[in-house]
Amino acid sequence: MSRPAGRVLTLLELLQSGGTRTVAELADRLGVDGRTVRRYVDHLIDLDVPVESVRGRYGGYRLGPGYRLPPLMLSDDEALAVLLGLIAGRRAGLTAAGDTASETAAAKIRRVLPKPVARRLDTLLDSLAFTERPGERAPAPDSEVLLTLADAVRHRRPVSIRYVDGEGRRSERTLHPYGIVAHAGRWYVAGRDAGLGEDRTLRLDRIVDARALPGTFEAPEEGDGPEPAQRVLAGLATAAYRYEVTLRIHGTVEQIRAQLPASVAVLDEAEPAAERRRCVELRAQRLDWLPPVLASLDRPFVVERPAELRELVGEFAERLASYARRN
Q1: pLDDT band for position 312 (50/70/90)?
Q2: Handedness of CA 226, 231, 237, 242 (dihedral sign)
Q3: Of 197, 299, 196, 181, whose CA–CA distance to 236 is shortest?
Q4: Which residue among 12, 65, 114, 311 is least crowded, i.e. fewest CB within 10 A of its CB?
């Protein structure tokens, strides 16, 4: 590569680091004069790289939005960070464009890595382990739906969505989205269903279409009600399931939350550091997982409802006692 071509790519890398760069600063970094910097900028513009000229005392050049992504100039550390992010995102089930897009993006970056960096990356991936195996993978949300909702959250615009619930029922709704939340390998949107006049938590992979509507809506102000993440957790904890469970558990909030997080149970959190009897409510499709969880809390508790859970806890206690008596 000729030296001028190499300097043009270095100029692109400097501009991609963000902000406005003065001509003097760029000339110093490239080891050329101001006129040459302007010529290099013209080369980038000829290549359809969207370089903007900023006038004024603190003016210079910066990258502007373009109709296509300009060539990315990543350092070794940046390339490693991007690749690890893609791998971790796929492993956590939080890819928003499907596995194919993540894999092709990773392949493109790996293809241009210097061999020493690529070897070090392979060594890292061979030694990398995760503490949990992925469960059933949720379908990735549609990228256009995700971007449309994100824009609606930022500008407080209502959106018309087509939604398919867990039973396969289709509906059309007008949603006032408050925020987008990633939780346990899935994407959710927290917002208000304008037709019902109630807050809702919806899975993004079940939204088949989203379209911005005219106008704006009033979102809750900061501190006025829970944040989007708390709304999602509360929505999951109170979702309609077969059993409604009410417990009285003696302990601190931290002790109880260690086994019954906010996405599972609604908890009386007054005086969080005090050890006292607290009301815990949750909903569940099955009850068989609860006795081991309650045993692992190692705290005094009372099952107020349902009666089936009291029976399961008694049977579980008898099994543990019989295991302890074995030689």
Answers
A1: very high
A2: positive
A3: 181
A4: 65
Output the CA–CA distances (angstroms, integers) from residue 188 to 42, 141, 144, in the order listed. 44, 9, 15
pLDDT tens for residues 89-138? Answer: 766 666 655 556 777 777 777 777 777 777 777 777 666 666 555 555 56
CB 20 within 8 A of CB 60: yes
Distances (CA, A) of 324 to 37, 288, 301, 317, 319: 80, 21, 22, 11, 9
What 8-state DSSP symbol labels residue 222?
Answer: T
DSSP alpha helices (H): ranges in the chain?
Answer: 3-16, 23-30, 34-46, 76-92, 98-111, 115-127, 143-155, 228-237, 253-257, 290-297, 307-325
- Tell me how far apart the alpha carbons of residues 11 and 75 are, in angstroms, rounded to a whole number: 14
Beta bridge partners of 186: 183
pTM: 0.51
Give the residue among 273, 272, 255, 315 at the shortest CA–CA distance from 290. Answer: 315
Query: Using N-to-C axis directions, what is the helix angle for 290-297 and 307-325, rounded to 10°?
Result: 70
Which residue's entry shows tokens 């939780």? 183
Provide the pairing of β-strand 51-54 with 170-183.
Answer: unpaired
List pLDDT tens digits, range 17-32.
778 889 999 999 898 9
R_g of the chain computed on alpha carbons: 27
Beta-carbon-side half-sphere exposure of residue 131 (alpha carbons within 13 Å): 0
